[in-house]
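seq as requested:
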Amino acid sequence: MSKIFALSEAASIAIHSMVLIAKSENGINAVKIAETTGFSKNHIAKVLQRLVKNSMLKSVRGPSGGFSLKKDPALISLLDIYESIEGSLEMGDCPLSYDVCGFDKCVMGNVVNKLTAEFKKFLQEQTLRSYI
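C-alpha coordinates:
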Protein backbone atom coordinates (compact mmCIF):
# COMPACT_ATOMS: atom_id res chain seq x y z
CA MET A 1 0.00 0.00 0.00
CA SER A 2 1.28 3.45 -0.92
CA LYS A 3 1.77 6.17 1.70
CA ILE A 4 2.21 9.90 1.29
CA PHE A 5 4.38 10.02 4.39
CA ALA A 6 6.79 7.42 5.71
CA LEU A 7 9.09 7.72 8.71
CA SER A 8 12.27 5.67 8.49
CA GLU A 9 12.63 2.82 10.95
CA ALA A 10 15.74 4.45 12.40
CA ALA A 11 13.94 7.75 13.04
CA SER A 12 10.99 5.89 14.56
CA ILE A 13 13.33 3.89 16.81
CA ALA A 14 15.09 7.08 17.88
CA ILE A 15 11.91 8.95 18.76
CA HIS A 16 10.23 6.02 20.54
CA SER A 17 13.41 5.11 22.41
CA MET A 18 14.02 8.68 23.53
CA VAL A 19 10.48 8.87 24.95
CA LEU A 20 11.04 5.61 26.86
CA ILE A 21 14.41 6.83 28.12
CA ALA A 22 12.88 10.15 29.21
CA LYS A 23 10.19 8.23 31.14
CA SER A 24 12.72 5.99 32.91
CA GLU A 25 14.10 7.19 36.23
CA ASN A 26 17.48 5.46 36.12
CA GLY A 27 17.98 4.83 32.42
CA ILE A 28 16.93 1.88 30.31
CA ASN A 29 18.82 -0.62 28.17
CA ALA A 30 18.34 -1.65 24.55
CA VAL A 31 16.87 -5.03 25.53
CA LYS A 32 14.04 -3.40 27.51
CA ILE A 33 13.40 -0.93 24.67
CA ALA A 34 13.25 -3.85 22.21
CA GLU A 35 10.76 -5.70 24.44
CA THR A 36 8.57 -2.60 24.67
CA THR A 37 8.71 -1.49 21.02
CA GLY A 38 9.21 -4.73 19.10
CA PHE A 39 12.17 -3.32 17.16
CA SER A 40 15.38 -5.31 16.77
CA LYS A 41 17.74 -4.96 19.76
CA ASN A 42 20.69 -4.63 17.40
CA HIS A 43 19.05 -1.86 15.36
CA ILE A 44 18.06 -0.06 18.57
CA ALA A 45 21.65 -0.27 19.84
CA LYS A 46 22.99 1.25 16.59
CA VAL A 47 20.49 4.10 16.67
CA LEU A 48 21.12 4.81 20.35
CA GLN A 49 24.87 4.90 19.80
CA ARG A 50 24.31 7.55 17.13
CA LEU A 51 22.30 9.56 19.67
CA VAL A 52 25.16 9.17 22.16
CA LYS A 53 27.61 10.40 19.54
CA ASN A 54 25.34 13.40 18.88
CA SER A 55 25.32 14.28 22.62
CA MET A 56 21.68 13.50 23.25
CA LEU A 57 22.25 10.44 25.45
CA LYS A 58 24.75 9.05 27.93
CA SER A 59 25.43 5.35 28.05
CA VAL A 60 26.70 3.12 30.83
CA ARG A 61 28.05 -0.33 29.97
CA GLY A 62 27.53 -3.48 31.97
CA PRO A 63 24.70 -5.59 33.35
CA SER A 64 23.10 -2.66 35.19
CA GLY A 65 23.93 -0.17 32.46
CA GLY A 66 21.71 1.55 29.98
CA PHE A 67 20.94 4.87 28.37
CA SER A 68 19.84 8.13 29.96
CA LEU A 69 19.23 11.65 28.67
CA LYS A 70 22.13 14.05 28.57
CA LYS A 71 19.82 17.12 28.71
CA ASP A 72 16.55 18.12 30.31
CA PRO A 73 13.65 16.55 28.34
CA ALA A 74 12.08 20.01 27.93
CA LEU A 75 15.14 21.02 25.89
CA ILE A 76 14.97 18.10 23.43
CA SER A 77 12.47 18.43 20.60
CA LEU A 78 11.34 15.59 18.37
CA LEU A 79 12.95 17.59 15.55
CA ASP A 80 16.30 17.42 17.36
CA ILE A 81 15.96 13.65 17.55
CA TYR A 82 14.76 13.28 13.95
CA GLU A 83 17.56 15.43 12.54
CA SER A 84 20.14 13.64 14.68
CA ILE A 85 19.27 10.48 12.75
CA GLU A 86 18.15 11.70 9.32
CA GLY A 87 20.06 14.94 8.93
CA SER A 88 18.61 18.40 8.49
CA LEU A 89 15.00 18.53 7.33
CA GLU A 90 15.14 20.96 4.44
CA MET A 91 12.83 22.24 1.77
CA GLY A 92 14.04 23.17 -1.69
CA ASP A 93 12.45 24.97 -4.59
CA CYS A 94 11.28 21.72 -6.16
CA PRO A 95 9.65 19.13 -3.89
CA LEU A 96 10.97 16.41 -6.20
CA SER A 97 14.50 17.90 -6.31
CA TYR A 98 14.45 18.45 -10.07
CA ASP A 99 17.03 20.95 -11.35
CA VAL A 100 15.03 21.81 -14.46
CA CYS A 101 11.26 21.98 -14.79
CA GLY A 102 9.41 22.62 -18.02
CA PHE A 103 6.29 23.98 -16.31
CA ASP A 104 5.34 27.54 -15.40
CA LYS A 105 4.11 26.50 -11.97
CA CYS A 106 4.58 23.46 -9.79
CA VAL A 107 2.36 20.60 -10.94
CA MET A 108 2.41 19.30 -7.36
CA GLY A 109 1.18 22.70 -6.11
CA ASN A 110 4.10 22.74 -3.66
CA VAL A 111 2.09 20.36 -1.47
CA VAL A 112 5.26 18.43 -0.58
CA ASN A 113 6.93 21.59 0.72
CA LYS A 114 3.78 22.55 2.63
CA LEU A 115 3.60 19.11 4.25
CA THR A 116 7.31 19.19 5.07
CA ALA A 117 6.96 22.62 6.70
CA GLU A 118 3.98 21.41 8.75
CA PHE A 119 5.82 18.22 9.79
CA LYS A 120 8.90 20.22 10.78
CA LYS A 121 6.79 22.66 12.80
CA PHE A 122 5.05 19.79 14.60
CA LEU A 123 8.36 18.09 15.48
CA GLN A 124 9.87 21.38 16.67
CA GLU A 125 6.93 22.11 18.97
CA GLN A 126 6.98 18.66 20.62
CA THR A 127 9.54 18.09 23.36
CA LEU A 128 10.24 14.91 25.27
CA ARG A 129 8.68 16.59 28.31
CA SER A 130 5.32 16.38 26.45
CA TYR A 131 5.45 12.57 26.62
CA ILE A 132 6.51 12.00 30.22
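The beta strands are 57-60, 66-69.
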